[in-house]
Amino acid sequence: MVATPFPLVEIRSVANAQNEWVALLLRAPEGSFDETTLQAMFGVPDLLAAVAPLDCILLLDSLAALTPPILKLLPPNRVVLAVDAGALAGEGVASRLAELQMDGFRVLLDGPLPADLPQPKALRSVARNLRIHGTPATGSLPALFGPHLAYGVDTQDALRAGENAGFGWFSGAYALDDADSAQDPQQHDDGTTRRRLMTMLALLSRDADSCELEAQLKQDPALSFHLLKLVNSAAFSSGTHIASIGQAISRIGRRQLQRWLQLLLYARQHPDGPPNLLLPVAARRGALLEELCKRDGGDRDEQDLAFMSGVFSLLDRLFRMPMAALLGDLKLPGDVEAALLAREGLLGQRLLLCETPSLDSAALEAAGLDSLSWWQCQLHAYHWAIQVARNV
């Protein structure tokens, strides 16, 4: 008997207005979720355990897949139902959604209501694909309901328009938008810390003396603070409290130091500033490429290079400079440079997979992957990125 392949599911992060991940948006690439797909996703505890404490938002075309056995698998406090508003035209759908809401599920009406159909009084929270349906007028969403979800938010301008309309949760590629209009010079430093980090990464790549690394770190109190906070966090601590930069370098080892410095490139630059949304994206890419390499049988050095490729893939957006100019002093291996500059080679191919939210079986097969392995690697990567975002 041939086993049914694991369904391909699109996963997108959802952030609030403070740039904090709050949920994952789950979408069936080929139509709505069916009962079999939801059973595969929620029939084992892997998904909800991996993404805790984040919520899961299901995009649903209808209620057909929400059978009693499936509803028993969905904890109302962790699962949000975003149902196509067009489904309200069906008999009894509005009352069924109201019942689900009474049972504890948060229900979002996704998209514009059908013509001449009144707004159900009990269902006032909404979801909207801004890429397809555009942004509602400023202040048009009911403030006492929500949080309202805007997805398909691909630019910083779309993000601001969504905030003005009353949305509180956002999903899309807006974190990668490097338009000049999106940057407020008053909210950013002069890049000194990040340049110092790049210098230290270059020192590590040429196996520089620990004293040189410590001297660089001590020049930047904010960077030293971030590093000590990170190495002592619950997510990464080895059980021994590290109280100085010298201890951090000597006890955690160069391999881990290099990894944490790579992540700290994306840390917030001011203690009272919002998190950098590029941080969890970079952490997810690094963890995903590393896990794929590990499953291929790659050794520790190969896994480190895979991780580095994922984390460094956003440096051009972070520094707002060409990637080639940034990589010049790091002396990276040729396959890493080929992946970062041209998405070439196995690392480049895998990096393209990381960057594509909706994949088909042919793309996975070409990369030597099956859908179950891809799902498991994604859960691993999202789990790691969530922990990083909460500790950096």
Shape: globular
| Overall CATH architecture of the largest domain | Alpha-Beta Barrel
In percent, how helical is the residue content? 40-55%
Which value, in Å, is the CA radius of gyration?
Answer: 22 Å
Order of helices and strands: EEHHEHEHEEHEHEHHHHHHHHHHHH
Strand order, largest beta sheet = 1-2-3-4-5-6-7-8
Number of strands: 8
First-last Cα distance: 47 Å
Beta-sheet strand percentage? 5-15%
CATH fold call of the largest domain: TIM Barrel
> On the 0-100 scale, what is the average pLDDT?
86
Q: Say what oligomer this is.
A: single chain
Give me the CATH superfamily of the largest domain.
EAL domain
Query: What is the level 1 CATH name of the largest domain?
Result: Alpha Beta
Largest sheet: 8 strands, mixed, barrel
Low-confidence stretches: 180-188
Question: What is the overall number of helices?
Answer: 18
Number of spatially distinct domains: 3
Structural class: alpha/beta
Describe the 3D structure.
The structure is a single chain. The longest helix has 21 residues, at 371-391. The protein is built from 18 helices and 8 strands. Helix 10 (245-264) crosses helix 12 (300-312) and helix 11 runs antiparallel to helix 12. 33% of the residues are buried. It is globular, with a radius of gyration of 22 Å. Strands 1-2-3-4-5-6-7-8 form an 8-stranded mixed beta barrel. Helix content is 47%, strand content 10%. The chain has 3 domains: 10-182, TIM Barrel; 187-264, no CATH class; 278-391, no CATH class. By secondary structure, it is of the alpha/beta class. The N and C termini lie far apart (47 Å). The chain has helices at 35-42, 46-51, 68-73, 93-102, 130-133, 156-165, 192-205, 210-218, 221-231, 245-264, 278-295, 300-312, 315-319, 323-327, 334-342, 345-355, 361-366, 371-391; strands at residues 10-16, 21-27, 55-60, 79-84, 106-110, 126-129, 149-151, 169-171. Helix 4 (93-102) links the parallel strand 4 (79-84) and strand 5 (106-110). This is HDOD domain-containing protein. Residues 187-385 form the HDOD domain. It comes from Massilia norwichensis.
